[in-house]
Amino acid sequence: MTTPASPPVSPSPATLHYGDGEFAVLRPGAYVACAVSGVPIPLAALRYWSVQRQEAYASPLEFMAAVRDA
């Protein structure tokens, strides 16, 4: 039995829509950039984002920096 191959993941950034507790991939890619530091975040490691701002963060520290600077 053969399984269908999944489409290749582009080494370019993904475009996401951030929701409450989940995100939707609008354009496939390998990563998103942290809104504060610019560090690439692999989608499998993405844990922190803002629904209101539609931004991703590498860690809680970057999220807190974004909120503080707003």
Features of this protein?
two-stranded antiparallel ribbon, alpha+beta, single chain, 70 residues
Describe this structure in words.
- The protein is α+β, with helices and mostly antiparallel strands and 70 residues long.
- Helices cover 14% and strands 30% of the residues.
- It contains 1 helix and 6 strands, in the order ββββββα.
- The chain has one helix at 60-69; strands at 15-18, 23-27, 31-33, 40-42, 48-50, 55-57.
- The strands form 3 sheets. Strands 1-2 form a two-stranded antiparallel sheet. The chain has a two-stranded antiparallel sheet with strand order 3-4.
- A hairpin with a 4-residue loop joins strand 1 and strand 2 (23-27).
- The longest helix is centred in the C-terminal third of the chain and has 10 residues, at 60-69.
- The radius of gyration is 14 Å and the shape is globular.
- It starts with 14 loop residues before the first strand and ends with a helix.
- The mean pLDDT is 89.
Describe the structure in brief.
The protein has 70 residues and is of the alpha+beta class.
